[in-house]
Amino acid sequence: MMDGDVALALRRAGLDDGDAVWDVIRPALRAGETYALPRDISKADALALWLAADRETWLAEDQEGRTLGVYYLKANQGGGGSHVANCGYMTAVEAAGRGVARAMCAHSLERAGGRGFRAMQFNFVVSTNERAVRLWRAFGFETVGVLPDAFEHPRLGVVDALVMHRRL
Amino acid sequence: MMDGDVALALRRAGLDDGDAVWDVIRPALRAGETYALPRDISKADALALWLAADRETWLAEDQEGRTLGVYYLKANQGGGGSHVANCGYMTAVEAAGRGVARAMCAHSLERAGGRGFRAMQFNFVVSTNERAVRLWRAFGFETVGVLPDAFEHPRLGVVDALVMHRRL
């Protein structure tokens, strides 16, 4: 934790946490600036992804039980690629800048290591998402790929996406 | 076409082409040396991928109507990433070295361009799959990412995977 960070408890999400998950992820999905998913994705389709059977999903809650963040952890590939983990993090709009993503990333790295994953990879970090890129770098992630013009940003036009990786 | 290449016709696969698709992809899936999928994947699960609603699947047939190759074409990402295509190609074991992958790749690039995709990306080219890497390079693909130790090869141990990309 750093100064100004909110105290959080992490717990596994269940299928009955759909509303809490949706409240966190909906604004970012509608904005369409960070995830390569349709901006008009339905609640059902989004939750089918975030609570899919191939991943575990965690909620970051403050001391009043409010959900301030959501992340999922899964194998990035199957078969011969299943030793590399993948995560996706979302912070509630009202909690931006309070260490929620940092707490989730720290938790996910420990969790992934404990499950035996040997590395973590982010497949599509929008290069203009500077706060995220800076945070992943602080956690030891390196850019192992640059996908040229891979993302059509709603405000900024066509921008690169990054593949980021660190060993566990 | 190059000398020694077999003459092929490409046609769209339908749901009733499952057996033909499976005959082509099964040996490569069981070998587990080129795709990051479980080596023991069932026929149903494999066909659910290869004939999924999010992609179009093409068969490469020789003049006797034998299926010598299968490929799929789809958007690599949704939303702001949907202008980049992705393909997966498989050649029948008995047809290796006869230009089947070359014919499929040429077809897929034209098809993807015709559909308005602006680039094609391969997310996970096993670096030891030298024949494939050489072929994609000949088609103008560049390595835009190296995923360190991303693939556990059944014979060669842990090897890198490549992210390859070309504009359309």
TrEMBL record, chains A, B:
It comes from the Bacteria. PROSITE patterns: GNAT (PS51186). Residues 8-168 form the N-acetyltransferase domain. Gene3D superfamilies: 3.40.630.30. InterPro entries: Acyl_CoA_acyltransferase, GNAT_dom, Mito_N-acetyltransferase. GO terms for molecular function: acyltransferase activity, transferring groups other than amino-acyl groups. PANTHER family: ACETYLTRANSFERASE, GNAT FAMILY, N-ACETYLTRANSFERASE ACA1. This is Acetyltransferase.
